[in-house]
Each structure stands twice: as C-alpha cells, then as structure tokens.
Amino acid sequence: MNPQRVAVIVAVAALLSLAGCGSDGVDDLAPVPLAEDAAGATVYEERCASCHGTDLRGTDKGPSQLSIVYEPGHHGDDAYVSAIRNGAQQHHWGFGDMPAIEGITDGQIQRVITYIRDEQRRRGFEQ
Description:
Number of strands: 0
Strand content: under 5%
CATH superfamily: Cytochrome c-like domain
Helix content: 40-55%
CATH architecture: Orthogonal Bundle
Order of helices and strands: HHHHH
Shape: globular
Number of domains: 1
Radius of gyration: 21 Å
Distance between the termini: 58 Å
CATH class: Mainly Alpha
CATH topology: Cytochrome Bc1 Complex, Chain D, domain 2
Largest sheet: none
Structural class: mainly alpha
C-alpha cells in the first residue's frame, strides 16, 4: 500500500477515535455548513456587486466598500442593515440614493456584512 495512503488512514483513524473523547452528545461528525465568508461572497455577488463592484471597489452606480468612510466607526453594521433594508439617501457620493434591496433575508444581510467586513480587514481601506 502507498505510504501516503497509510498515513492518511492512520490520521483519519486517530481523529475518529478522538472524536468520542469528551463528547457532550453533539454529533461531532455532522457536516460543516458553508463558510460564512463564502456564503456572504455569493450574496454580495448576486445582490451588491452590480453597483459596488465585484472587487468591492465600486462602479459608476455605487461607491467602493473599501472606502475609509465605510470603516466600522463611521458606518457600523447597523448602517449597512438599514441601507440594505430601507435604502439610503445619498450623502457621501454623487451616485444617487441607494434603493432598498427587495427580497433579501436577515441571514443574507448578516452574511454579506460579514463578507464586506472580512474583506475590509483583509484588504484595508482606501481614501
């Protein structure tokens, strides 16, 4: 048998034997849900990217989400929730008012905000 395959089998067996240690009755081997950032990226792509850009740097229809004005201390997560749910009046840019996003769920809103915040931390803010 291939030595790499043997190592994988041994590692899996060790993990399975440890999975029962200290179990609180929760199924430790339950499927892991889709990562929040991947789910958020999908929602962003489907619902936000046409105005705010696939790279979050904006388009001629909406501003960059990497702009320093969207840092959490200036536009917190509640501001994002409100803008997505209710729309937002133009106040920093000349793109016009942002319409409310129809048919988006609370879970999708949270996922997209998590995605945007993760990307802001990862990429940093631009002036």
